Each structure stands twice: as structure tokens, then as C-alpha cells.
Amino acid sequence: MNTRRIKNFLFIGLAGITFYSCQLEPSDNYSIQLRKLRYTKDSLLKFDQNSPLEHGQKVRFVELAYFSPDTNYKVVADVEKINSQDTMIIEDTHKDLRKFHRMLKLHFKIQGKPYSLFAYKQVTDTSNDLFIPFYDATNGKETHEGGRYIDIEYSGKDKIVLDFNFAYNPYCAYSQNYGCPIPPQENKLPVRIEAGEKEYKDN
């Protein structure tokens, strides 16, 4: 599944919510915005013709499960720009090979401890959008065993907000019909990220 199509579907209705501003919203306002976004995504999954859910799944679907909004997982990351744009290969869940450029390395702290994640761009993508697939210590327990994704828009600044409350499942978490990029081992966080979307269960 093309990461652009994933983003286009998941982030309909995001007008007014930015991922790259270093201004942190008041927590109450922020929680309301986040819950509205989650409601919008639930509606799209159930009713939109581009939903990854099949008809039977849509009939059974009520809502996705999430961790509660938590601004402790909305962090300001230092941006390390990667000058070399050598092509790297990321395998997807259908064993197909995808070509990406490693664009940024983001340095941040969770619970006072330093971590980092790489942000990638698909070689055919000409936008400012970057793709962050990652593993963390909740995978296979509360969250999808194949990891989760975050999308960011990068405008060239030295700092960027990395908000794990927006972490979402790849399409292959909902249906095996989709091949989704597998997070590289360099993006494996040895910490529990108790934010964002939880494991999808077909009730």
C-alpha cells in the first residue's frame, strides 16, 4: 500500500492541526481535537469506499481502540539532517521491496531518556511529507505486532514536534490484502510508547 494513499485516507479532516509547529496546545483543547480526529477516522473506516475494511468488517466495526491522549508523548525533537540520499530498501509484508531515502534523524527524550528515530521519504514522493515507521515495547501486546507509523510534514526547521498520539496502524493491521512497509530495526524503540492507536480487533 502506497504510504501517500495511507496518509490521504487517515488524515482527512485534519485542517488546523499541525505536526511540525513547536507550539504545544493547551492539553484540554488538544484532547478535544484529538478525539474529534479519532471519531472522523472511525467514520471513514466504517463508511468510506476507500476503507481497508471489507464489507463484513464494516458491519461489525464500532470504533478503534486508542491510548488516552497524553502530551508526555508529544515531544520536541532535534533534527539531524542527512545529506546523503542513498536509496535504502524497506521490505513490506508481502515481501515486496520499497525504495526510500533516509532523510532525517530525530533526537528526542521520553521520560527523560534519549531516543532517536529516522524519517524516510519514498523515492517517488515529491512532497514535504516524511514517513516514520517504528517499533516499540507495546507491539504484540497492546499494539499491532508489526509496528506503527507516524507521518510528519517537514519545512526545514531544526526542531520538530513528534507526536506519538497520532501513531497509527498500517493497512495490513486491518487486512492481509495490503502490503505495508516493515519498520527497519534502526527504528526500534526499547520503551513502551503508550500513545496512539492500539491493536485492531475484528469484533
Explain what this protein looks like in three dimensions.
- The protein is α+β, with helices and mostly antiparallel strands and 203 residues long.
- It has one domain.
- 17% of the residues lie in helices and 27% in strands.
- It contains 3 helices and 7 strands.
- Strands 1, 2, 3, 4 and 7 form a 5-stranded antiparallel sheet that branches. A two-stranded antiparallel ribbon has the order 5-6.
- Strand 3 and strand 4 form a beta hairpin.
- The longest helix has 21 residues.
- It is globular.
- The N terminus is likely disordered.
Question: What attributes does this structure have?
Answer:
single chain; 203 residues; alpha+beta; five-stranded antiparallel sheet; two-stranded antiparallel ribbon; 3 helices; 7 strands; globular; disordered N terminus
Overall residue-averaged pLDDT value? 87
Uncertain segments are 1-26
- Portion in beta strands: 25-35%
- DSSP summary: helix tally: 3
How many structural domains in the coordinates? Answer: 1
The main β sheet shows up as:
5 strands, antiparallel
> How many E-type strands?
7
Cα distance, first to last residue? 24 Å
Helix/strand/pairing category: alpha+beta
